[in-house]
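Retro notes (design track)

What went well: tokenization of the new backbones is finally stable.
What didn't: we kept losing track of which sequence belonged to which structure.
Fix going forward: every design gets posted as structure first, then sequence, in one message. First example under the new rule, 124 residues:
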């Protein structure tokens, strides 16, 4: 079973699924818009590289469509948890009026475009 991960963070899904025989990540998408990448990778990206050096981190999920790996790789499951702050009381319930809120629409676009058999969408 091949899966792809967006909003990967330190990749909880892979940690949880590593004991399932035959399940393999094909790519991650970890990106922190507030991190200065000119000074190096953000902490989650460093952790992904350390634990999963053969799995590419495609970075910003808004730019996935520009990545050959994204275009060419098929997967059975899309997993990820788009940020929930925009939809919560703490985030003033601005919803889709924020960049973070629009990541939910991007997740839906990936589902529509890539058509995996299943998806796991968590509310982080």
């Amino acid at each position: 079973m091949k899966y792809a991960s967006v909003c990967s963070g330190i990749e909880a899904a892979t940690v949880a699924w590593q004991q399932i025989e035959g399940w393999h990540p094909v790519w991650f998408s970890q990106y922190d818009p507030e991190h200065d990448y000119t000074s190096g990778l953000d902490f989650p990206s460093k952790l992904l590289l350390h634990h999963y050096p053969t799995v590419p981190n495609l970075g910003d999920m808004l730019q996935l469509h520009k990545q050959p790996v994204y275009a060419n790789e098929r997967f059975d499951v899309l997993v990820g948890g788009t940020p929930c702050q925009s939809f919560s009381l703490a985030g003033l319930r601005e919803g889709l009026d924020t960049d973070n809120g629009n990541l939910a629409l991007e997740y839906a676009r990936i589902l529509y475009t890539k058509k995996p058999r299943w998806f796991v969408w968590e509310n982080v």
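Added context from the reviewer: Residues 99-114 form the longest helix (16 residues).
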